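REQUEST ID: PR-0412
SUBMITTED BY: lab tech R.K.
PRIORITY: routine
TASK: structure prediction, single protein chain
INPUT:
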Amino acid sequence: LVRIDRLRDRRITMQPNESTALLSPTETPIGVTEALQRLTNARDKGRLGHALLFAGGGGHGAYDLAIQLSRELLDMPRESSSSALWNHPDFKCLSPLPPASQQVTTDDGTDPVPHQLQRDPYARLEVGANWGIPADNARQMIQWASMTPWQASCKVALVAEVEKVNEATAEILLKTLEEPPDDVTIILVTA
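STATUS: complete
OUTPUT:
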């Protein structure tokens, strides 16, 4: 796992910690660009983990890093539109939703969290305290992850606001997090 803390506000560097790579406060300032470079270097050397945890959430660069890393892993051109990632068949975003009784969608019918991230990955997400990641959506993501990549050489799953996972959803995701398919990278982002 990789931990990212407040990329905008603090000075951090990568330090290995047993089986994990930990980004923790130190004297060396780095931002999203340098963290992305270090993660892509780890991928190129075959040392990037199958699951990454970015702490910091909205407002601190963790989502921006997750989005940029997803684009790198899927070999997307830098010039591609901001919506290209969200429409890529080998990218999936699992995000919290409000309770069914108060289901919220944006004007274009999309889920609110991916829509917010597409507009501004640095903004704090507008997620209610009673929102959760539905177990059915987790099952769909696992089924999606088990299929062969369609356009890229791998698949990337982004789990936004992972602290909103309830016990049932966590049990569903656990096996995939422990033993994911070889060609899947799961990026968990938490506040």
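NOTES: Helices lie at 32-44, 62-73, 82-86, 112-119, 135-145, 167-178.
REVIEWED BY: pending
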